[in-house]
Sequence to fold (159 residues):
Amino acid sequence: MNVDIPQGRDPIEYVWGEMVPGIGPAAANFSLAVYAHTTLGLREFEAARLRIAQINGCVFCLDWRTERDGEKVEEGFLDAVSEWRTTTLFDERTRLAAEFAERYALDHHGLDEEFWARMGAHYDQREVVELSMCLGSWLAFGRLNRILGLDTMCMLPRR
Fold:
């Protein structure tokens, strides 16, 4: 479904702000908070975020690269995320972030003791909670943008 956007209006601002003023701004604030307040490393953050973007099929999310202090992940990182099981470009934290993202989105009932033992060896509980909240934001809002057709209406400018 594509939402009808009035001529000359920004699709994200219109849908997220004006169409549902009681919910949209709060959702936008949560979405922005995962970027502004994360303590996760850039590579693990982006591996998880991009794996969710791949699963959702959100063009907007796939096009975006998080930047911190002028740094972004390298060209080809998206391809490495697709191959998270076998890529040599990831350390164990980054690989686990991509795996957790995939399982969070596709098989959350299958998160077993073996998985949690591996996560616990590389992430503390606070980091798992933070990553889980980030995943929830990306899964929900990336799907919302994809399902409503917003992901193709408003592409980010290239930097």
About this structure: DSSP finds nine helices and no strands in the chain.
